[in-house]
Amino acid sequence: MGLSTTFTVSTPTDLEIAVERMFDAPSDLVFDCYTKPELVRRWLTGPGEWTLPTCEIDLRPGGTYRYVWAGPEGESMGMTGTFHEIEPTSRLSSTEVFDDDFGMGKMLVTSLFQPQGDRTRLSQTILFESKGQRDAAVATGMSDGMGMSFESLDALLAEVRPS
C-alpha cells in the first residue's frame, strides 16, 4: 500500500487549499468513486457512526449534487454543489456550499485524477472567495476529515478494484 498513504494539504495562496493524495487504483475507478452515488455513499461517510443517506448526483455540466450526512445522535450536515467541468476519469470542477456555512462560503473545487501507472494521484484545489473563508475552512479541521474519508476510499478501492 506504500503510496496510498501519501496525503498533503497546503495553502499555496491566500484563497486556496491544495490537497494531494495517491491511491492504489486506476484513475477511472477513483473517478467512479467520486461520481457514482452507490460508491460515494460507501466512503464519504464521515467519522465513526456517521452515514451519507442522501447522495444525489446529476453528473453533467450544470448538474447538481446533494449530500446530507447523518450522525448517530440525530445530527445532520448537508452540502449542495453544481458541476462546471467534467472530463470522465480525469477532471471534475464544481462549486459547493454547506447548508451551515461554517464561515466558508461558496467554494470552487477542482479535482484532477492523474494516472501514475496502476495508481492515481488525486490533486484537488479548493478556491475560496476570501482569505477569511479559506482560514475558516482550515479551522474546521477539514484536513482530518478528508484524511478519514480518504482512508475509507482506500478500503473501498481495495474491495472493488479488479484483480
Walkthrough of the structure:
- With 163 residues, this protein is an alpha+beta fold.
- The protein is 27% helix and 40% strand.
- It has 4 helices and 8 strands, in the order ββααββββββαα.
- The protein has an 8-stranded antiparallel sheet.
- A hairpin with a 5-residue loop joins strand 1 and strand 2.
- Helix 1 crosses helix 2.
- The longest helix is centred in the C-terminal third of the chain and has 19 residues, at 142-160.
- The radius of gyration is 15 Å and the shape is globular.
- 18% of the residues are buried.
Derived from helix and strand composition plus strand pairing, the structural class reads alpha+beta
Quote the average pLDDT.
92
Share of helix among residues?
25-40%
Order of helices and strands: EEHHEEEEEEHH
Beta-strand percent range: 35-45%
Report how far the terminal alpha carbons are from each other: 15 Å
**E-strand count:** 8
Radius of gyration: 15 Å
Report low-confidence residues grouped into runs of 5 or more.
none
Described by strand count, sense and barrel closure, the largest sheet is:
8 strands, antiparallel
List keywords for this structure.
163 residues; alpha+beta; 8-stranded antiparallel β-sheet; 4 helices
Topology:
Elements: E1 7-10, E2 16-23, H1 27-35, H2 37-43, E3 51-57, E4 64-70, E5 76-87, E6 91-98, E7 107-116, E8 119-127, H3 131-139, H4 142-160
Antiparallel strand pairs: 1-2, 2-8, 3-4, 4-5, 5-6, 6-7, 7-8
Summarize it.
The protein is α+β, with helices and mostly antiparallel strands. The protein has 4 helices and 8 strands.
